[in-house]
Glycosyltransferase 2-like domain-containing protein
Amino acid sequence: MKSKLSLLMITKNAEELLAKSLESCRGLVDEVILVDNRSTDSTCDIAKKYGAKIYLNSEQDLGKQRAFGLKKVTNEWVLVLDADEVILEGLRREILHLKISNFQFPISKQVSNSNSQTSNYSGFYIPFQNHFLGRPVNYGGENYKKLWLFRKDAVAIEPAQVHEEFKLKKGRPGVLKHKIFHYSYRSLRQTLGKFSDYAIREARQKSKKGEKTSLKKIILYPMHMFWARFVEDKGYKDGIFRIPLDLGFAYMEFLTYFLMLFIKNKKESSF
């Protein structure tokens, strides 16, 4: 008897790609848990068509929002997706194979590390294929993995305004072979809005942790960010079309440290 799998997703005004994301999981997951931060578009209507259990929760802290959703999951195993992430056939077969085997053995050489006994695998990192303006990007910080498939009772997640992540607290991780396709940067306007939102969150988070801004950080950190992504991390190998993406990261770095000038204290901001 195969294991049951829950999909966990948090949303806010995610109508653009939500149907594509949920459709890619049809027949793969046995439950859809969607935590929505009071969307004003058709996000919830789309989710209802896919049988999602929708929970409205107003929370700007993404770590807390995911933790809230995790408590609503009823199955032992959880697959996490954002509304701009899509499962393709290769990854779908990989996860189905794991479900059939009750997550008891590796399905590829990349899953296993040194011990052939795999019954204590508690989670699996999944690699990402990011896209910028509809084209894949593979360098400059865009090639990474996330712990996006795991046992519900084996993970913990800390409060975080941005860059929240699940971490294993017991067992050991494997790594899947096939990638999640991530359409994070769909247009220049949408990408600019995304970076602006992240900068606000990052400024609040850094200030809360006690970090201070300075003229040096405001001026030099953005330049270093562009250089690190496009040159040091070989973003240029993707082609010059990605230059606006790396300029966007530089802009986010600038805006983060600039906005920190206006934070009143470590607990509250003026924006």
Summary: The radius of gyration is 19 Å.
